[in-house]
Amino acid sequence: MSLVFYISSFIAILSTIMVITRYQPIHALLYLVVSFLALAVTFLSLGAPFAAALQVIVYAGAIVVLFIFVVMMLNLGKQTAQQEKEWLQLRAWLGPSILSLVLLAEMAVLLLQDAPEAMPATVVTPKQVSLSLYGEYIIAVELVGFLLMTGIVGAAHIGKHKKKSLHRFLQTYPNLN
Amino acid sequence: MTVMQHIWIVLGVLFVFLNIAAGLIWVERRLLALWQDRLGPNRAGPLGLFIVLADTLKLFFKEDWIPPFADKWVFILAPAIVVASVLMGIAIIPFAPGIVVADLNVGLMFFLAMSSLGVYSIVLGGWASNNKYSLLGALRGASQMIAYEVFMGLSLMGVVMLSKSFNLTDIVNAQKGLWFVVTQPIGFVVFFIAGLAETHRLPFDIPEAESELIAGFHSEYSGMKFGMFFIGEYLGISLISAMTATLFFGGWLGPAFLPPVVWFFLKTFLFIGLFILLRASLPRPRYDQLMGYGWKLLLPLVLLNLLVTGAIALWLRS
Asked: Do residues A78 and A131 share a domain?
């Protein structure tokens, strides 16, 4: 199982790098999907099939689709790709690279110190997930519910507008649509 | 189960489902003709069966053209996604006791995950075509499928509550006394409607509405790339029909005079027939009607169903 874990996490890292370096926004989002799928496999190899399925359903199946939806609406063409190219200069890479190299070195040291042989893979069943969600973490779940509700109310408020009827029939009978 | 047996099951399921998908070309045209009082394809071969062969050959030998203005790699990727995601979904269906490709303990979640990935084929195909009609189709497809995914998932949770498992074999075994269609009628109806929308079949084929969008997201596709969308749609019908039979009509369960696999496929074909009957009989709604119907009618209905099912399940336990 640990080989699966290493392969999928490597793919996740690689595809995330590709997300950052693509100039065309849709291509970047496609790599983001791959990154989420790789993360789902990582969850699966750690013994959390429920979290893996949710990762695919929520992130890969819904949120990135909405991202793509918005990018499609914006109709970004070659100009954006050119602009991205100008923004992504080598100098901008310097700081983040040094910081992440430090992290990589730390992780390598820690991994070599302990040399974990087998991963502690206890399978978490859907029942356990839901019991802890509606038991220990009930307040967090309710708070997230509040937050999402505010989001929905806000979106409904922004999206609401009076219907303008240009045709004289529709003006006389406003319910006729 | 040995490795060889497993490989045979995988190959068998692939063979059967790809052949069903191809055979549906003929079945759909003949049934539509029957219901619309015409003859349908009846010339090539016995009962016109060779239309399948003719159609497949035509698709294979047509020029496979990629428009110069399209985004080449995304354009090629899109039709592959639809077939791959549907075939992955088929992997969790139990055809008979022991005959299943992957007996996952989160099988139902896996099915939902795969059907939610299917939306990428429409979105990417429409975007990569670089054509305004395709883009409009893709936009419609994306919002339709995201919306109806919600009801599809919620309508199945009643079944999960009653069978106490996400595993499809357990769900079928939980229906030994009574099929879930009796205890979850609303769940069944909403699941089937959401399945229609997920496979974007008539009356919900708004992403490809011929009369306004000239086939929508796949209007730039030709040859076998179009064929993949075509086969993907038929595979999607078979998948939703098989899932309906498994989740609400007892899967392979049935009187003992026929083997379990036969019962399973009989039920599946019944729902495929229902898909085609709906196409023959219902007109296409307008786009806002579709979304309003989903969010204003199906969502409250399915939430209410969930609430009542949960209450009754708790009451029975205490």
From this structure: no
Structure token pair of residue B299: 């969502």
CA of A123: which chain B residue's CA is closest? B105
Amino acid, single-letter form, for residue B260: P
Encode burial over B8-45: b for 16+ CB neighbours within 10 A, e otherwise. Answer: ebeeebeeebbebbbebbbbbbbbebeeeeeebbeeee
Residue A166 inside a domain? The answer is no
Is A72 within 8 Å of B138 when comparing Cβ atoms? yes
Quick check: B127 and A57 CB within 8 A? no
- Closest to B87 in 3D by CA, of B222, B231, B217: B231
Q: Do A61 and B113 touch (CB under 8 A)?
A: yes
Please give the helix or strand (H or E) that residue A31 lies within, else none. Answer: helix A25-45
Residue whose entry in the numeric block shows the structure tokens 């708070």? A143
Q: Count of domains in chain A? A: 2
- Chain B residues in contact with A57 by the CB 8 A cut-off are 109, 112-113, 116, 149, 153
Residue type at B74 in one-letter notation: V
**Complex ipTM tops 0.95:** no
Supply the range of the domain harboring residue A8: 1-87
pLDDT tens series, chain B, 318 aa? 678 888 888 898 889 888 888 889 888 888 889 888 888 888 887 888 888 888 888 888 888 888 888 888 888 888 888 899 999 888 888 888 877 888 888 888 889 888 888 888 888 888 888 888 888 888 888 888 888 888 888 888 888 888 888 888 888 888 888 888 888 888 899 999 999 888 888 788 877 777 777 777 888 888 888 888 888 889 999 999 999 999 888 878 877 788 888 888 888 999 999 989 988 888 888 888 888 888 888 889 999 999 998 898 888 888
Neighboring chain A residues of B146 at a CB cutoff of 8 Å: 62, 65-66
DSSP A115: -
d(CA A60, CA A41): 13
Interface test with A, best of B166, B287, B289, B295 (most A CBs within 10 A): B166
Task: Give how far Cα B104 sits from Cα of A43, A90, B117, B119, Å.
Answer: 15, 46, 18, 23
Interface membership of A29 toward B (CB under 8 Å):
no
In a domain, A172, yes or no: no
Contacts of A62 in chain B (CB under 8 A): 116, 146, 149
**A73 contacts on B by Cβ (under 8 Å):** 139
For residues B242 and B13, give the distance between their C-alpha atoms in angstroms, rounded to a whole number. Answer: 12
For residue A132, being part of any structural domain is answered with: yes
Q: Please report, for the domain that includes residue A15, its CATH number.
A: 1.20.120.1200
Residues A11, A78, single domain; the answer is yes
How far is the alpha carbon of A66 from chain B, nearest alpha carbon, in Å?
8
